[in-house]
Design a protein that fits this description.
By secondary structure, the protein is of the alpha/beta class. Keywords: Methyltransferase, Transferase.
């Protein structure tokens, strides 16, 4: 009986969707869909015996007109391989976050159609998913044109990143590249200035013209930028640190750099 049920319900799962069963992430996705217009879940599975804790979420679901189905309770554990808690009553099927590759990035730059110069954030060895999510949020808030991350030795999109980014994973162009060193060389050949951040740089961020086409590289908090990447930067820049702490959280530093570019590019309210 269970085997028949699970086959039946598996067929109902939308193609190219991601299963999310963390209630806090589901709530964040629903709120972002309502407030910012980011894509809501494609489908929601809800238990029949849902408790009062979910009433606010049900209100959001109704406002967003999301399709709902009510599978038997035992299906929830079978679909999630037993990972869902007994008291959790909702599973969301969300559109997968589709990333782009280096070829797409280069083609975009060759056929640049934006009214302002390119502005990208590059991450080099950022393994913390919370930092990646926060960086994505800053990229979107600053109106930058995308984020570039290496395929290996870097955090990638998961449920935590989706939650921390507050919807930015749904709207920011995310480029995954096989070889960051090669990608940086290609960007330089296309006229993109590469700005590496390091607390040992003599030039400050505020001394650099950020109105030019540029990509700002952030390294890991522990090791910073790799030596190979440093050698391929047009400028190495730092932020003035006036206190006793020698560095900032990576996502905070990224936000400062991006919004300095916004300021220089004559943004007006």
């Amino acid at each position: 009986m269970h085997k028949i049920n699970i086959i039946y319900w598996k067929k109902k799962i939308p193609n190219d969707s991601e299963i999310i069963y963390n209630i806090h992430i589901i709530k964040t996705i629903l709120l972002n869909a309502k407030i910012f217009g980011t894509p809501p879940p494609i489908l929601l599975w809800i238990k029949n015996n849902i408790n009062k804790y979910y009433y606010k979420i049900l209100s959001l679901i109704e406002q967003l007109s999301i399709k709902i189905e009510n599978p038997p309770n035992e299906i929830f554990k079978l679909i999630t391989n037993g990972k869902i808690r007994n008291n959790q009553s909702i599973i969301a099927f969300c559109k997968m976050v589709f990333t782009k590759n280096e070829k797409t990035l280069i083609n975009r730059l060759l056929n640049w159609k934006e009214s302002v110069a390119p502005l990208f954030l590059i991450l080099n060895g950022i393994t913390d998913t919370y930092n990646l999510g926060a960086c994505l949020r800053s990229v979107d808030a600053a109106g930058a044109h995308g984020i570039i991350i290496p395929k290996t030795k870097n955090a990638h999109i998961n449920n935590i990143v989706r939650k921390v980014s507050s919807g930015a994973t749904e709207v920011v162009l995310i480029y995954i590249v096989n070889n960051l060193y090669n990608t940086i060389n290609k960007l330089r050949n296309l006229g993109i200035w590469i700005l590496g951040t390091t607390n040992k740089a003599k030039k400050f961020l505020f001394d650099i013209d950020l109105k030019i086409p540029c990509a700002i590289i952030m390294g890991s908090e522990g090791y910073g930028l790799s030596n190979l990447i440093k050698k391929n930067c047009d400028y190495l820049i730092s932020l003035p640190m006036l206190g006793k702490i020698s560095s900032l959280n990576i996502s905070v530093a990224a936000g400062i750099c991006l919004f300095e570019a916004v300021r220089q590019r004559n943004f007006k309210i």
